[in-house]
Amino acid sequence: MTAEGQDRYPHLFSPLEVGGARLKNRIVFPAIMNNYARRGLVTDRTVTFYAERAAGGAAMVVSEALFVHPSSVPPQTGLAAYEPANAAGFERLAAAVEEHDCRMVGQLLHSGRQQVRGPVSDSSIGVSPLPDPYSWTVPHVMSTSEVRMIAESFVASAAVLQRAGFSGVEVHAAHGHLITQFLSPWSNTRQDEYGGDLDGRTRFLREVLAGIRSVCGPDFLLGLKMPGDELVEGGITAEESARIANRVSRETPPDYLAFGQGNSSLSFGDHVPDMHYPPGPYLGIQRDLRAAVTLPVLAFGRVTSAAEAEAVVRDGIGDLVGLGRLLVADPGFPAKVRAGREREVRPCLYCNVCWGEVTSGRTIACVVNPDLGTGGEAARRVRGASRKREVTVVGAGVAGLQAAAAAAEHGHRVTLLAGPHLGGKARVESLLPGRADIAATLEHQRWLVERNGVRVEQSARVTAEMVLATGPDIVVIATGARMMRPPTLDAHSEEGVSVRDYLLRDDSGADDGTAVLFDFDHSAGTYAVADLLVRRYRDVVLMTPRTSLGDAVPYVSRLGVHRRLHEAGVRIELSTEPLLYKDHVLRCANVFTGRLTEIEDVALFTWSTPRQPVDELSGPLSASGVPVHVIGDAYAPGTMLTSIREAEMLGRRL
Fold it and tell me: Which of the two ends of the chain, N or C, has the fewest CB atoms closer than 10 A to its terminal CB?
């Protein structure tokens, strides 16, 4: 392996001593839930997930949150540190990570009142009789003896992990979980020794840290993840965070600090900033906090590239860099960058689909990483096809590009018949406000197509004759889908225009009228169209037949959707559907009562609706005797996640 990347990024790939551990570089995979556990126990998929991030070159891997006590009400797919039956699983996990010269650190958590998946059947416990701002769960308020019992469970869990071979633990005191509930004056109204002033509010955390250090010794790595800024009135600010960190460190200094943003209130999305945020949106807070403390700092939060990670260390923002979603997208990022193969890295979309899948109870998934959780991410071996075939792929959206690249990578000779622009509807979406990261994924797909020798032919329209002229043994149809006309719209109505057709036409000027966007889709792309219309029209009305907005957007990103819509003054009409659009007037009806209303001075009526497959070729091609596979939206309209995964799997098995 060359050290080209190490020469380009000397700070990122320099070693560091943290506590009793030597880290080979500054790259950390921070805690991200994956739902691979079963009945609270480590599974083979759990071990594989973390081992692949270690094999990919990270210096330290922090586990998903490990629940320290049953009163935290962990899901069955979460890992229980208190469960004796997990001892062997934790040993396997530690060994699988540590064998790659990567430190395995377990994150210890009690969620307290916070129930991210909504109210649960068992009673939750908490610091004060205040509702969780996410689920509105009101907890049982812990007595003083119960507080001490939970502190002891943190210590006992750390000892379990030490015996299993973990290098250390990270105490999770951020994002509104139990310890944050103690630390923050916003959530702690206790009158006993665990409330009140700074000493009282930090007492629980100080007891946890002191207990772990006493039981596990000075060489066991002890990290602390705590709030940098809760971003809520009355909560912990950056200045208060520095006070807390220095007060806690006076008696039992952790080996490193990590500062997370937001809690489970309306600032929930700030701990996983999506593509609407600029890169590293909270690095300024972390720089200031690093200057205010005397301990190493793990900085994180939408750090999107090796150059940005290098700057974090070089510029004194952090001593370590957390690259969570980036290493979900490509666990081999560190090794590829260090070897000078940065071009091969799959870029993360920062779409938060991974978060949405997990909080919905499914296992973690990644739009751009179809290998996630399969056991072959970090060093996937490409097996050549037993028989090389002539494969023709029709359509160059995300499904067509992925299928063409995968088939060529496996040894087939591939021709890609595409329209004038590669990327399909994803290319159009990438031009919208806050959706630019999609372009990086398309560019990576185009690079894979080129690298694997796919022959690309572009034409305004592809016919069956053109496909057959390529001499295919197999044809893959990936011609996408188009939005249907709103089904409630009167037959005599003026048509309006689908959002895709609107975006494709030359219509970039401002208008003094009203734009109406009918949202029968609820995807992030639809709300990006609304963001665009706000810039172009005097007034914008967003209409949906449902009782809420953004059902297809992960909650942490949905908060941003609502924030932008309300800040822009968009008029939101729920439970409403369009009936007739004529002479710049849109007649609408409430879906429950049928009550009619009208919107006047409508300069644009556009709609985002369910899509219908576009497939005019599979019939005649099948009739000619050529085997045909239909994938992506052309088979059944879905998401980028389903299209890319389906295309990759097909390309491998042809």
Answer: N
Q: Which residues of 362-383 are buried (b: 16+ CB within 10 A; e: fewer)?
A: ebbbbbbbbbbbeeebbeeeee
**DSSP symbols for 507-573:** --S-EEEEEEEEESS--HHHHHHHHHHHHHEEEEEEE-SSSSS-TTS-HHHHHHHHHHHHHTT-EEE
pLDDT per position as a tens digit, 156-209: 999 999 999 999 999 999 999 999 999 999 999 999 999 999 999 999 999 999
Contact between 495 and 584 (Cβ < 8 Å): no
Give backbone dihedrals phi and psi of 510, rounded to 5 degrees, phi first.
Answer: -85, 160
In our burial notation (b when 16+ CB lie closer than 10 A, e otherwise), range 584-623 reads eebebbebeeeeeeebeebebbbbbbebebebebbeebee
Greater confidence, 506 or 198? Answer: 198
pLDDT band at 506 (very low <50, low <70, confident <90, very high): low
Grouping H, G, I as helix, E, B as strand and the rest as coil, residue 173 is coil
Cβ atoms 432, 525 nearer than 8 A: yes
Q: Which residue from 175, 196, 31 is spatially nearest to 112, judged by alpha carbons?
A: 175
Q: How far apart are CA 346 and CA 116, in angstroms?
A: 29
User: Going by C-beta distance under 8 Å and a sequence separation of 6 or more, which residues neighbour residue 381?
Assistant: none
Nearest CA to 253 out of 221, 229, 285, 230 is that of: 221
Strand partners, 602: 514
pTM above 0.85, yes or no: yes
Cβ–Cβ under 8 Å, residues 366 and 639:
no
d(CA 348, CA 369): 9
Do the bridges between strand 576-582 and strand 455-458 make them parallel or antiparallel, or are there none, so unpaired? unpaired
**H helix runs in 99-142, sequence order:** none
For the residues 287-294, what does the mean pLDDT come to? 96
Calculate mean pLDDT across residues 329-340: 96
What is the distance between the alpha carbons of residues 113 and 80, in angstroms, rounded to a whole number? Answer: 18
- Give the 3-state DSSP-derived string for 554-572, with helices as H, strands as E and coil as C: CHHHHHHHHHHHHHCCCEE
Which secondary structure element, helix H or strand E, spans residue 126, and what is its range? Answer: strand 125-126
The 3-state secondary structure of 575-593 reads CEEEEEEECCEEEEEECCC
For the chain, report the end-to-end CA distance as a whole number of angstroms.
33
On the question of pLDDT at 10 being above 80, the answer is yes
Pure H helices in 166-305: 178-183, 198-216, 238-249, 283-292
Reported as type and span, the H/E element at residue 605 is strand 602-608
Could you give phi then psi for residue 81, rounded to 5 degrees?
-70, -25
- 392: tokens are 């023709």
> What are the helix and strand counts (H, E) for the chain?
21, 28
What Cα–Cα distance (Å) separates residue 462 from each residue in 259, 482, 524, 619? 53, 17, 30, 14
**DSSP, res 38:** B
The pLDDT value given to residue 384: 65
For 612-639, how does the pLDDT look when each residue is reduced to its tens digit (9 = 90+)? 999 999 999 999 999 999 999 999 999 9
Q: What is the pLDDT of residues 356-404, one digit of tens each?
A: 999 998 999 999 999 996 666 654 555 666 689 999 999 999 999 999 9
